[in-house]
Design a protein that fits this description.
With about 325 residues, the protein is mostly helical. It contains 14 helices and 4 strands.
């Protein structure tokens, strides 16, 4: 799919204005196979459509927009002009055709989100705007645009609504809806892995992308943080621990909307090392309007991703069990 114009992608040391424009890039270029697998599993739940229809009927588009935007300021050239300029640049890089509103909401919590039904929009927490520099904020904006371009926003909005309703003990959230919520949360976490790739493509600098995750995980300024050490921490978390540690890692994630940043760094590095990131920068990526890959190919890729993840986990569990057994037996030999 590459053409002559796309043979010389910019290096990460070049000026950010020289980012490659990813003309007509299709979202499937960055979508993580586990994201697709989790979404397919979600849609197979017998009560999923019914729960979704009830939420639609109860809330509707306009009340949801008003609820999310009631305590936020819409970004424009005259309000949060820095954010507006960065957003427009990210839109150009990802060749986004839609015009989606961006809002800044006053809260110290460092986070952002893409929401909505028919008319998606992005909300940046003010803590995020203050903590991150221009390139890091561009990564976050690219990440949220990735959610919109991948059509994540409807299910993500439903997830947030169900989480909030469940927390308040609202009667609409019965046993069936709670089952849907567990499945939604599983998919929600996997969708973050896809959008991290979109964020990287928006800034086209892998160190900056991972540094953004580091700052969002722990805050801190440039002289307080060290990316290589954080990457080592990510690998230690992924590979280390005994059986109990592995179980607690799963339990810690079950109620979370986002995977841990150390895991997201590892997943992003894996994608870069696979060569797919470089191929996209060379212009070798699917375009919007091109025939999609066969449905069976997508399922096969997704199943392989889950199988590999399960194998890694079982291998870690087996190794941890062996270590525990060896330690137990060594106690008798002393």
């Amino acid at each position: 799919m590459a053409d002559d114009q796309d043979q010389n992608p910019p290096t990460e040391s070049e000026d950010t204005r020289a980012r490659r424009i990813l003309t007509e890039i299709a979202p499937r270029a960055w979508e993580h196979p586990a994201d697709k697998a989790a979404l397919q599993a979600l849609r197979k739940l017998p009560v999923f459509d019914e729960i979704l229809r009830k939420l639609f009927g109860f809330f509707g588009e306009k009340p949801i927009r008003l609820a999310f935007q009631a305590n936020a300021v819409r970004v424009s050239p005259n309000q949060f002009g820095r954010v507006h300029a960065l957003y427009e640049e990210v839109r150009r890089t990802l060749d986004v055709t839609g015009d989606y509103d961006v809002y800044v909401s006053q809260t110290p919590i460092v986070n952002a989100g893409a929401y909505g039904m028919d008319r998606p929009f992005i909300i940046l927490n003010s803590g995020t705007v203050r903590l991150l520099d221009d390139e890091e904020l561009s990564f976050v904006l690219g990440h949220e645009l990735g959610h919109i371009m991948s059509d994540h926003v409807l299910y993500r909005t439903m997830t947030i609504l169900l989480v909030n309703l469940a927390g308040m003990g609202f009667p609409i959230v019965g046993i069936a809806a709670r089952a849907v919520l567990v499945a939604l949360l599983e998919w929600y976490r996997k969708s973050e892995l896809s959008s991290d790739r979109a964020g990287l493509l928006a800034i086209q600098d892998s160190e900056l992308a991972m540094r953004t995750m580091l700052k969002m995980a722990g805050g801190g300024s440039g002289d307080e943080i060290n990316l290589p050490e954080f990457i080592r921490q990510a690998e230690e978390y992924r590979e280390g621990g005994d059986v109990a540690d592995q179980v607690f890692k799963i339990l810690n994630l079950m109620g979370a909307t986002h995977p841990f940043y150390v895991l997201r760094v590892s997943e992003l590095r894996t994608w870069i090392e696979s060569g797919d990131y470089d191929r996209i920068l060379r212009g070798d990526y699917p375009r919007r309007g091109e025939p999609n890959r066969a449905y069976q190919d997508d399922l096969r890729e997704a199943a392989a991703a889950y199988a590999e993840g399960a194998k890694d986990f079982l291998d870690q569990m087996a190794a941890s069990a062996r270590r525990m057994g060896e330690n137990f037996m060594s106690g008798f030999k002393r």
